[in-house]
Design goal:
Layout: H1 7-10, E1 14-15, E2 31-33, H2 36-46, H3 50-57, E3 67-69, H4 93-96, H5 102-105, H6 108-115, E4 121-126, H7 129-140
Antiparallel strand pairs: 1-4, 2-3
Length: 142
């Protein structure tokens, strides 16, 4: 017997970003995954040195994979007071692919649970399956 299809392949999903910024917040122990190339794009967008980027914004777990450190309140440091991303053009893949993360679209329960945080979920037009699968493929290229 084959495994059941993931939720996103069984049900049409609607999403329209409202710019609320809820996806830019998490718990104090969360971070935004980041590649070295993405870190460099952010550094260039901000016009700061590598040392300042590492000191001010990145996790310091000594791994090859840096991450954006969230503030004590769980907010991304690049989320402006107006609720907009200050590095939108240089935002990392994790941000670009939200809410099309495997853990959010694998089941109806996961999707609906995240929809309690994100007002853009279940809103707007149905998102084409091809768009969701492109985001999933990009996520696998980490």
């Amino acid at each position: 017997m084959s495994a059941p299809l993931p939720y996103y392949r069984r049900a049409p999903l609607r999403f329209q970003c409202t710019g609320c910024g809820a996806c830019c917040t998490g718990g104090v122990n969360h971070e935004v995954a980041l590649t070295a190339r993405e870190a460099e794009k952010i550094r260039q967008a901000l016009g700061i040195s590598q040392a300042w980027l590492r000191k001010r914004y990145l996790t310091s777990d000594n791994s090859d994979q840096p991450g954006i450190r969230l503030g004590r309140d769980g907010r991304c440091p690049f989320l402006g007071h107006n609720g907009r991303c200050r590095i939108y053009a240089a935002r990392p893949r994790q941000c670009r692919t939200y809410p099309w993360w495997p853990e959010l679209i694998s089941s109806r329960a996961a999707w609906q649970d995240e929809a309690k945080r994100c007002e853009g979920m279940n809103r707007g037009a149905v998102v084409p399956l091809e768009r969701i699968e492109r985001a999933l493929a990009a996520d696998r290229k980490k």
